[in-house]
Amino acid sequence: MSSLPSSKQISNLDGKAQKLFDLSYDATNQCVQCGYCLPACPTYESMGKESASPRGRINLVKMAAEGKIDIQQDLAEPIDLCLGCRACEVACPVGVPYGHILESAKEVIAEKQAEEKQFPFGDKVKSILLSSVFPYPKRLRFVGNLTRFYQSSRLNKVIRKGKIIDKISEPMAQMEKILPLLEAPAKRNKWGTTIPAKGETKASVAFFAGCIMDAMMYRTNRLTIELLTSIGCEVIIPKTQNCCGALHAHQGMMKQAKEMAKRNIEAFERSGADYYINNAGGCGAMLREYDHLLVDDASWYERAKEFVNKSRDISEMLVQYGPLPFKKEWQGMITYQDSCHLRNVQGVHQEPRLLLKSIPGATFIEMEGSDRCCASGGIYNLLHFEESMKILDAKMENVKKTKAATIVTANPGCLLQMRLGTERQGTSDQVQTLHLVEVLAEACELQ
């Protein structure tokens, strides 16, 4: 059997094809094209074409790395249409690292766009937000505070009545309607503080506040900390933490993602905590892959591995150090929608279910296809609204079959997407969508 060609044996590779070859070619050749990934892929199911499947995308990356197709013209769109849910990795019998291949392709595509100065308006806005807003916690909090004012002043009612946002962007208008009501900014936990455990201290944990969670869902962060202290955890909020870098990595901005990872590693190392806790499946997946992100940086790799070893989802900690101090019975049936990155990347799927089943009075109903993506995909539902809604509407039919009055998720993007689903289905007045932390806190009578 002949060995695979090296990049030197493939002539006429330009700079970007060469980089794609170096980053991903060996990984693409692990794929045996068996097709086990096809039934697991939400975009293949909704679009019905090979280029929308993991197998097809891997083959396109391989061909681009060999210089057989153009990176921008032939590869960019199929890669951009991938949700990045990574369900294919779980289904793959030979362990193809699809997430690594996807990230490599996105990095090279982003560099190619910059090189050729091919930036549509939407990409320019996205780049500005990711470069000038998300890396800066104070700026994000300012956005959150503006949103709170927008809601409390009832300006949102005026904007909706005039359909002002609809005229700019239908996806943005629909997302605005299902934003959670923000509580007073004064209730947001201050970074750099330590909250003592209630009773005996069982563990010291450092809490990752996130960017969207800290800016827009800080009530969930506050309740997360209260749940942790109720089971005996001292909670430290590292002052110099920042965005996890997931959104940047998903858009091919790997240099920025690596810099944010390093700042987080430093911030959490200084906490001296036993564990590093997060409450967002997407953020947690990124945090738990910092060792992969920094694998080529000898001065950071070991520190990244230690960071990963200490990282935990909130549900894991609550199961490990519980039981929770429940004080009231839950009324009605509950179903759970997995966060793709919590399940497929972090490997956490039993803990949230165990916690929901432990709530007094609660009836837990497993949803058909609960492990399949809801098509939030970070900002996928804004960039590819119609494709996202096809997948979401099918998901909501499965929710309907459960007859549950409460949908529970463990990721902010999933939370908003499922709320949008109930709006589209016309059941938002009958079915509520809550973060796992909110449900547990309510059962513990934490406000």
Automatic annotation (TrEMBL):
UniProt superkingdom: Bacteria
Domain 4Fe-4S ferredoxin-type, chain residue ranges per copy: 21-52, 72-102
Keyword Iron: yes
InterPro entries reported in the protein's UniProt record: 4Fe4S_Fe-S-bd (IPR017896), 4Fe4S_Fe_S_CS (IPR017900), Cys_rich_dom (IPR004017), Glc_ox_4Fe-4S (IPR012257), Helical_ferredxn (IPR009051)
Catalytic activity entry: (R)-lactate + A = pyruvate + AH2; glycolate + A = glyoxylate + AH2
The record's free-text note on cofactor binding: Binds 2 [4Fe-4S] clusters.
PROSITE patterns: 4FE4S_FER_1 (PS00198), 4FE4S_FER_2 (PS51379)
Cofactor: [4Fe-4S] cluster
This enzyme's EC code(s): 1.1.99.14
Family annotation (Pfam families): CCG (PF02754), Fer4_8 (PF13183)
Keywords, comma-separated and alphabetical: 4Fe-4S, Electron transport, Iron, Iron-sulfur, Metal-binding, Repeat, Transport
GO molecular function: 4 iron, 4 sulfur cluster binding; glycolate dehydrogenase activity; metal ion binding
UniProt keyword Metal-binding present: yes
Function: Component of a complex that catalyzes the oxidation of glycolate to glyoxylate.
Protein name as it appears in the record: Glycolate oxidase iron-sulfur subunit
